[in-house]
Amino acid sequence: MTWLIGMFLIGLGLLCLYDGARATRFLSSFATSLSVHLIELALRLVAGVGLLLHAPQMRFGGAFNMLGWVLIISSLALLILPWRVHHRFASQAVPMATRYIGVLGASSLAIGVFVWWAMWAGP
Known about the structure:
Layout: H1 2-18, H2 20-28, H3 34-54, H4 61-80, H5 83-98, H6 101-121
């Protein structure tokens, strides 16, 4: 599962760097409906649990363990809130973030590579 997190981040980074308009459309689609909101939360929960399970075998396992808990707790908090609150937040945050699509892409790419390295480097 953790390798999928790295792959997603690398893919997002490459998309941001090579087709910023498409990346912006993708990021703008987050929390646009209740079903998309629930799918996003489910994926975040799965990613958080995956990080918790793999953290002991990863370099910087404590940090990945903490990140897993952040994903789980924030996903559960978003699940309690009405999805429109998440939508309002995303509709404000995404345009601010995508103004710097190149930085977002390079950061996502670097973090994805770091996740992969941490998996293969071991504890």
